[in-house]
Design brief:
This protein is about 40% helix and about 15% strand. By secondary structure, the protein is of the alpha/beta class.
């Protein structure tokens, strides 16, 4: 019985090895000099590979240093379209293994690309000056050119949040590379600190809801002496360690961040706590649910490349500490505190100038998706109706807005546009 089992396993292994050797895509992947290829079983695709692809650190120096960029390659058929997902961060999680929404809609092939300087796609040595919008775009252009040798059909680029920013960067620098670009909830910031984000908090939701949020912040600040020990005890039990900053500083950051995170991901005013009947324990649990202490631990250093980009080219947001100044441990709580340590951070507006010019040119074949409540929607792309692109805003939606969450009429607009631009017949879902 044991011998039979071993023989069966050996036959399965040899069969799968032989299949991989005979696969046209596999042969293409292993033919790329210096590329590492690992075949992975997938229920979502007919073939699936994790690829480490050599990339230039500096696309302006063809003989310069290289690093390896991680790409998750999901294959259906060479005749199907290709969706290139431009991840804004590390792709070392489940995201790279599943189909994105455009991939599902189109039954497409998928290249899920980890962002340079994140996860396994980090150059050594680390030279921060090559983490720019132009270099990002150069990565995707190279991938598009390379994989275009075997995928000769329609191409789309898409990404979510910072990944949507990255998909936009790619379109800005290489406008003819793909047939359609779908950035989800992508900020289009025009300054290092774009004031449109601040103004959003004066208009989003109802006046009553905005007042309630401020009252909750006041509660946390006024009762900090009683709540901080509960906060610290919770963090200890969960395993959060505050080596990056003291627990009180993390607590202050969390309270200041609360309105942004609430509107970004929750936006349900009916579920805000009732201050007349709540308890200190419940209020601490609510705070850590909306703003996780995780963001103020050493773990957040994994996101330092993003913070570098936010404060050098892409723009970000800060807090208004004045209403709470008498309760705060520090005078200032800048998000710029989370940029890489010991690295010069200098604002470069060259990309913003290029981005503004691009958006004003009425680019074609782009579909921007936003949530109405999401603060990042405040700096969303300005797309004029009838100019060859779409901007769809989910009413009451958050940072999780997507095509499937749009109204029936909005979905029709999206599907009709995709059908027209890709030359495909797509059936609009019933709901």
């Amino acid at each position: 019985m044991k011998t039979s089992g071993i023989v069966t396993l050996l036959l399965i292994f040899l069969s799968s090895f032989s299949w991989a050797q005979e696969s046209e895509l596999y042969k293409f992947l292993v033919s790329i000099p210096g590329t590492e290829v690992k075949k992975v079983d997938s229920s979502a695709f007919k073939e699936f590979y994790v690829v480490m692809l050599p990339q230039l650190v500096d696309h302006n120096n063809k003989n310069g240093a290289q690093f390896k960029q991680r790409i998750y390659v999901g294959h259906q058929d060479f005749k199907r379209p290709v969706v290139m997902e431009t991840e804004g961060y590390s792709a070392g999680n489940i995201n790279g293994y599943v189909q994105s929404e455009p991939t599902r809609i189109l039954n497409a092939n998928q290249l899920y690309v980890e962002h340079r300087y994140f996860g396994a796609s980090t150059p050594t040595p680390l030279d921060w000056k090559y983490l720019t919008a132009g270099q990002d775009a150069g990565d995707y252009h190279y991938i598009r050119t390379l994989f275009g040798q075997v995928y000769k059909g329609k191409w789309l680029a898409t990404g979510v949040s910072k990944g949507g920013q990255t998909a936009t960067e790619y379109k800005v620098y290489y406008p003819e590379d793909v047939d359609v670009t779908i950035p989800y909830v992508a900020p289009i910031n025009y300054k290092r600190l774009d004031k449109r984000i601040d103004r959003h908090f004066n208009t989003v939701g109802t006046p009553e809801c905005r007042t309630h949020i401020r009252e909750i912040q006041d509660y946390w600040m006024q009762k900090k002496k009683d709540l901080l020990p509960i906060y610290e005890d919770y963090c200890t039990k969960v395993g959060f360690k505050f080596n990056l900053m003291p627990a009180e500083e993390a607590y202050d950051y969390s309270v200041l961040e609360f309105p942004f995170s609430f509107w970004q991901y929750y936006a349900n005013c009916e579920k805000l706590p009732d201050l007349a009947s709540t308890t200190p324990d419940k209020m601490v649990k609510y705070l850590v649910r909306i703003v996780s202490p995780y963001w103020y631990t050493d773990a957040v250093e994994a996101f330092s490349p993003a913070n570098y980009q936010f404060y050098t080219q892409l723009g970000y947001y800060e807090y208004n500490e004045k209403p709470f100044s008498k309760y705060l441990k520090n005078k200032d709580y800048p998000n710029s505190a989370f940029v890489p340590k010991g690295v010069e951070i200098k604002w470069d507006n060259s990309y913003i100038k290029k981005l503004k010019k691009f958006i004003r040119s009425n680019p074609e074949h782009m579909i921007y998706i936003y949530g109405e409540a999401d603060p990042w929607g405040a700096t969303g792309a300005k797309i004029k109706p009838g100019t060859g692109s779409l901007k769809e805003v989910q009413k009451g939606g958050t940072h999780g807005a997507h095509i499937g969450s749009l109204s029936v009429e909005q979905k029709k607009e999206v599907y009709n546009a995709l059908s027209k631009w890709l030359g495909m017949e797509l059936e609009v879902p019933a709901n």
